TrEMBL record:
Residues spanning the signal sequence: none
Name of the protein described by the UniProt record: Glutamine amidotransferase domain-containing protein
InterPro entries xrefs: Class_I_gatase-like
Gene3D superfamilies recorded: 3.40.50.880
């Protein structure tokens, strides 16, 4: 029946009734291709570029190359060649798609039926994705006036689905508020209650020292990620990371990087110029796709950018964290973490420990029409809030449900 039988067999076991099983079906396994799993967010913003992992299994087609096709309402969105390895070994195919139309979209991932297949229905898998056309709020708290604020705002100004609310400290207990909804929003400075902070989907921390926050606020920032499921992005600066006194705080615990670094600066402030390069994962990650080309062209784009600088010596990831960009000299571009992340509780934490990404917009070698900086920040912030749950959400345990099957729903209140 395909259902667990342990509970049904208990009365027979208690009565010492013997049970004999009879196998049904063919004794020889026939060749088969199966789209086993599709890893894609259940909800995304319209206009988001997604890199979807699709697990394809096979039996009897070693070394064969097939096409993985993605369709939306019968229209082909994308396709990717998949080459099978040894018999029975699943293959992870990465396919890039654009969510151009809003509303519930039933996406179909399929591999054409191969010669010799007797089961055809498992060659395709359908996934429902809710493409949302709404404006999502991100709070950007910056501890000092600097160019990053201006250019981040400029980068997302034309993205109707991102609202970056800026709180910038201009002097002690004085703040500049930008793009707030009303006069009450952030009127008292950085949120002091969970209710006030948790209304945002993302939080960006700039160059602001840990001592600015109360212990309750530091805990609240960590809970914003682990319990609310929000996205936290920590930028570099003279008052960020270890230089900002975050060692031993709840925020440090949430970071994907280690703050202890063995580079001796002999008491002098740390400063390093960085040429950036994508990691292997960064070549295919949605946040770091600067163009629509292949991996080699994406690498060339990143490595052609002018150098940026950092004041935060960070070179080591925590276990389970993923690096997307690294930086250093032209001889060794892997000395410094430039972009990394990990899951923390229900949410994610991203670090970008550089202080001047705006150089990718304003450097003399960058053409006026170049959109690299804008593209990077729009994709980064869309990814920051990707998958952040609503305050009240419900989901089923299984992606695939048969007619008449009982479905268990789990509701979460953030």
């Amino acid at each position: 029946s395909g259902e667990p039988l342990a509970e049904s067999l208990l009365p027979l076991q208690a009565a010492n009734v013997p049970v004999y099983t009879v196998g049904l079906g063919e004794e020889i396994l026939t060749p088969d291709v199966q789209v086993s799993r599709v890893e894609i967010p259940r909800s995304v913003l319209v206009g988001t570029s997604l890199v979807v992992d699709v697990i394809v299994s096979h039996r009897g087609y070693s070394d064969r190359t097939v096409s993985l096709v993605v369709e939306d309402a019968g229209q082909i969105m994308a396709s990717e060649d998949v080459t099978f390895q040894g018999d029975g070994e699943p293959v992870v195919a990465r396919v890039r798609i654009e969510t151009t139309e809003s509303g519930p979209r039933l996406l179909r991932f399929r591999v054409p039926v191969q010669d010799g297949e007797s089961v055809e229905r498992n060659n395709a898998r359908e996934v429902l994705v809710d493409v949302v056309d709404e404006s999502e709020k991100i709070l950007y708290f910056e501890g000092e006036p600097r160019w990053e604020v201006k250019f981040v705002r400029r980068a997302v100004a034309e993205d109707e689905n991102l609202q970056v609310v800026v709180l910038q400290r201009t002097a002690e207990n004085k703040f500049l508020r930008l793009d707030v909804d009303d006069a009450e929003e952030l009127a008292a400075g950085f949120p002091k209650t969970r209710e006030e902070l948790f209304r945002y989907r993302g939080l960006i921390l700039g160059s602001v020292e840990a001592s600015f926050f109360t212990h309750d606020q530091l805990n609240m920032i960590a809970d914003f990620v682990s319990q609310r499921g929000g996205g936290l992005l920590v930028l570099g600066g003279r008052n960020a990371f270890a230089e900002g006194g975050y060692e031993g705080t709840p925020v440090e615990e949430a970071l994907p990087v280690l703050l202890d670094d063995d580079r001796n600066t002999e008491g002098n402030p740390y400063f390093e110029e960085l040429l950036v390069s994508p990691t292997r994962t960064g070549l295919t990650h949605p946040a770091t796709q600067l163009g629509g080309g292949d991996s080699e062209s994406i690498r060339e784009l990143w490595e052609s950018l002018p150098p940026v600088t950092t004041l935060n010596p960070i070179s080591r990831l925590k276990p389970g964290a993923t690096g997307l960009l690294t930086g250093g000299t032209d001889q060794d571009r892997s000395r410094q973490v430039v972009l990394a992340y990990h899951r923390y509780g229900r949410g994610k934490v991203i670090v970008l420990p550089i202080q001047d990404s705006w150089i990718w917009q304003m450097h003399a070698d960058i053409p006026l029409e170049d959109q690299t900086h804008e593209t990077f920040w729009r994709q980064l912030l869309r990814w920051l809030i990707d998958g952040v749950p609503d305050p009240i959400s419900a989901q089923s345990e299984s992606e695939l449900v048969e007619p008449g099957q009982v479905v268990k729903l789990t509701a979460e209140v953030g």
